[in-house]
Structures are given as structure tokens and as C-alpha cells.
Amino acid sequence: MLVNFWRLIKNLKFLQLALYIIFAFFFLPSFGNRWLLELASGFLLLNVLLVSLSTVGAVRWRWLFWLLFAAAAICHGIYLTQIGPEGRLLFIRLTIICNMLLLLLCIGGILSYIFQTIKVTLDTLFAAVVAYLIIACTFTHAYLLLCTFNPQSLSIPLPLRMDSFNIFESNIIYYSLIVITTVGMGDILPLTPMARILTVVEAVVGQFFVAILMAWLVGRFIAQAISAEKLESQD
């Protein structure tokens, strides 16, 4: 029974990751305890890393994943210590850059897994959902990095402060999800040319992802189901 349960979890690894990312996007920003939020965010990144590594066939590339994860953890740990404002700003930038590079590698690994999959399963579809959400998370980091250089890049109704960075980040997460889904609420606006370029790129990537990749995978999934039913009816 335990073996069958482990196989089920392993086969649905992208489902649990998709659910956790959705939970993180919608509920983590409301956590009042800062250290609980830090712990949950760290587990989210570790979850993304482990699931992505399970899709990477080449062992020689795995050290790069772990190196970026360790570098991000070290920089974030230094940021959390009581150092000067300039030092905290430097290390939060380094943390964001390392996380962005790691997320890009994870996206590449997941997309490679999707394109190499012969049979499209339910977990393959959730792998695409995870890649879509990680893309939104990557753009979130890009906006955050941009705001550390120019806090007026986005019309967020609160100042960027190192002691309340998580609150500022939750607004960026909301903005990134609004952009990638092209909902366009209009309560947060890009104010600088670079912010507008990132916004347009994310909106285009999000639409192409859903219109092309997701549609292609769903089409293959339905076609395989129809073929299986025909084979069963012939038997």
C-alpha cells in the first residue's frame, strides 16, 4: 500500500506543486508572522527545485541548480541579519538575481520534460500549469529587481522599505498575475519604459503559452483518450 501511495505521489508531483504555488500566491502574503512567511517561501523554492530536478536528465547540470539555490539562500540569510541599509539592498538584489536564474533553469527543465513526453498524462498538463505559474513568479522577481533600482517603476501605493519588503513583494505578485492573465485591473500601472517593456513581454508570453502550448497539450491528451477508446471498442 505504501509503495502504491508513493507511486501516486511521484506521478502527481506537478499537481502538488501547482496547488502549493497557488496557495503561496493567494495566501502567503496574508501571513502575519514574518518568519513563517520566510519558511513557507523557502519551502516553495525548494519544492520547485526538487520537482524540476526530477525532470532533468543530464546529471552534469544539476550542480548549477543547487549552486544557485545555495547562493540565493546565503544572500537572503545575510539580508535578514541586522546590517546597514545599503548592505541589505545589495543582498536582496543578489537574492532576486539568483532566484530568477534558478527559476529560469527550472522552467527550461520542465518545458524540456513536456516536449520529450511521449504520452500526455494528467501530470503533464499540470507540468505546463506549473511552468506557467513559475513564469509569473520569474517576472515577479524581475519587477522586484527593477523596483530596487527605481521604486517609482510601478504605481504601488506604499514605499519600498527593507523592513517591510514582503508586503511590497505581495503587491508585485498580484501585479504579475494580473499581467500574465491579461486581466488588466488598472490599480497598479507601469510608470517607466523598462517596467512597460517587462509588462508587455509578460503579457505576450502568457498569451502565447496558453494559446499554443496548453492548447497543443490538451489536444494531444484528448486525441490519446479517443485512440484508447477506439482500441478498447475494437477489442
UniProtKB/TrEMBL annotation:
Keywords attached to this entry: Membrane, Transmembrane, Transmembrane helix
Cross-referenced SUPFAM superfamilies: Voltage-gated potassium channels
Pfam families documented for this protein: Ion_trans_2
Transmembrane segments: 12-29, 35-56, 63-84, 90-113, 125-146, 172-191, 203-223
Residues of the Potassium channel domain: 171-217
Protein name: Ion transport 2 domain protein
Organism field: Desulfobacca acetoxidans (strain ATCC 700848 / DSM 11109 / ASRB2)
